[in-house]
Amino acid sequence: MADPARAFVAGHPIGHSRSPLIHRFWLDRLGLAGSYEPLDIAPDDFPFFLAGLSASNWAGGNVTIPHKQTAFAAIDKRDAAAEAIGAVNTIWKERGELAAGNTDAYGFAANLDDWTPQWRAGQRALVIGAGGASRAILHALLQAGYRHIDLANRTRDRAAELADLFGESIHAAPLAAIDERAADADLVVNTTSLGMSGEPPLMLDLDKVGDQAIVTDIVYAPLVTPMLAAARDRGLTVADGLGMLLHQAVPGFERWFGVRPLVTPDLRAHIVADLEAHCAGDNAS
Predict the structure, then answer these.
(1) Is 260 annotated to bind ligand?
(2) Which of 9, 32, 51, 240 has the most beta carbons within 10 angstroms of its beta carbon?
């Protein structure tokens, strides 16, 4: 009889990761004997960890900041999403060799499918921020058929680099232009840390946005960012970022443990309770 599968999430630091809460919830609810463990691995040590992974008893795992690009460079067998995004967040074994993928674009799209499936009918989007997260969003939007995507960033040159990488549908813009670009957008996406707990809010004039526009944020702490609150007050359809985190975990769990889990209200409530507990702890005197 085979030993129970073991999976991990590797990062540095790793204490902030909620992946163990998600995967352990599924293991418990599905009655599986596997395990999912957080591993704090310093950048200098991560290549050695990867080198020994194929011969280890790990079924695979997730990688998070700062290891996503290192894993991409080290693992030759990568899925199409990882190739397009240029980063890896999920590792598994195929015939004894390491394979890698990126599930962030899948998680983003699946979250919107849950909240507001009409997003797939859109043609124009405004994506705010040109960091690592925006690559997954751009890939998801292009896969969904968006034809015109304005990519606004504090430094326009960074947005222009991604526009060159992802093709002619991407149009670089300075952050100061977001009010103007939002006016024609069917979908507005914040991929920056603006609006996150402890960060200043994203300043966006939602009065210029069309009545049918959808507004979403990949930030999930707080669940309702100032941008989402303002969009809701304006009567717009909104989607918070927590579902992206939950859905991106599904493909990896299925690869390691052999069962495809569901993102349910119970799972969401489980993670929301943890978010609220940490928020209360941070605010305690």
Answers:
(1) no
(2) 9
